[in-house]
Amino acid sequence: MLQLTKRTEYALIAMIQLLDRAGDVVSVREICERNPVPRRLAAEVLKDLQRGGLVHSHRGANGGYTLARGAEQITLGEIVAAIEGKPTFTECDLVGSYAGAHDVASCCPIHNPIERLRTGIWDILQATTLRDLVRGHFHVSSNLIAS
User: Fold this and answer.
1) Cβ–Cβ contacts within 10 Å for residue 15, how many?
2) pLDDT tens figures, 7-62
3) 10 Å Cβ neighbour count for 55?
4) Which domains are seen in the chain, by residue range?
5) What is the spatial distance between Cα 143 and Cα 132, in angstroms, rounded to a whole number?
6) Contact by Cβ (8 Å): 145, 113
7) 3-state secondary structure the chain
8) Which band of pLDDT confidence, cut at 50, 70 and 90, is reported for residue 85?
């Protein structure tokens, strides 16, 4: 199942802090003073977010970070992918257990529903923007709950 780490939680905290101060350069120190985030990990996740094209880095005495795009253009899926990598969805463990098992995944009683859930969760992350997160709006697909 898709599992998010503390690093992703810290990235979301940092991104919300940057959103709250949109237009201002926000330092790692400032993020850590306002939130319970270890400085070293905050610096690491912000570098990952920069590599992912989600934040801009500003050097110098007044350096720090700003959002690279508007909060309505950055999805939670992009943030998760920048920190954790895009999730890979595994094949059913039963598939390799049987001779001629290449057809088992299509009829496995748990594979298809679990795969639908995994894909549905990822779709929600991809459809939900940073702005939506702050507002408490989530885009639940009807495919996630349909059988």
Assistant:
1) 27
2) 999 999 999 999 999 889 999 999 999 999 999 999 999 999 999 999 999 998 88
3) 26
4) 6-145 (1.10.10.10)
5) 20
6) no
7) CCCCCHHHHHHHHHHHHHHHCCCCCECHHHHHHHCCCCHHHHHHHHHHHHHCCCEEEECCCCCEEEECCCCCCCEHHHHHHHHHCCCCCCCCCCHHHCCCHHHHHHHCCCHHHHHHHHHHHHHHHHHCEHHHHHHCCCCCCHHHHCC
8) confident
How many CB atoms are located within 10 Å of the residue 65 CB?
A: 28
**pTM (global) more than 0.70:** yes
Are 116 and 109 in contact by the 8 Å Cβ rule? The answer is: no
